Amino acid sequence: LQVPSAPSQPTASSEGRRFTNKHSKKALKASLTLGILLGMFFVAWLPFFITNVTQAVCGCVPAGFFDVLTWLGYCNSTMNPIIYPLFMRDFKRAMGKYLPCCRRAGEPRPSAISLSMRNSNSGARAATSLKNVL
């Protein structure tokens, strides 16, 4: 008696590995981006909040130092628009569509009507009413 052997599927297993590799790379990149954003948030705002609590308890924090820590937090907010395009390809593409300085030479400029239609949930009915208005 011979036991039938299971057919080997090398293509399916290599596809599965490639699929897993691709998703693990995306997950790693997403984790890295999130880690950088959260790390910068904590580095920028944690001293402010600790100083704020200290000021409430003892009132011994100089006003200038408190202002510096407040501006450090504000600098974090200015860093987010820089960090997102550096690490997120989709964010880069979206900004490239709408900012004239980032648009490629052959891409058409989106009109205000197409932008509002894309963002509205009204669908074709809104298009008809916009044509009547214009």
From TrEMBL:
The keyword Transferase does not apply. It is a multi-pass membrane protein. The chain crosses the membrane at residues 27-48, 68-87. One of its GO terms (cellular component) is plasma membrane. GO terms for biological process: adenylate cyclase-activating adrenergic receptor signaling pathway; positive regulation of MAPK cascade. Keywords: Cell membrane, G-protein coupled receptor, Membrane, Receptor, Transducer, Transmembrane, Transmembrane helix. The keyword Transmembrane applies. GO terms for molecular function: G protein-coupled receptor activity. Residues 1-84 form the G-protein coupled receptors family 1 profile domain. It comes from the Eukaryota. Pfam families: 7tm_1. InterPro entries: GPCR_Rhodpsn, GPCR_Rhodpsn_7TM. Gene3D superfamilies: Rhodopsin 7-helix transmembrane proteins (1.20.1070.10). It is found in: Cell membrane. This is 5HT6R protein. The lineage of its organism: Eukaryota, Metazoa, Chordata, Craniata, Vertebrata.
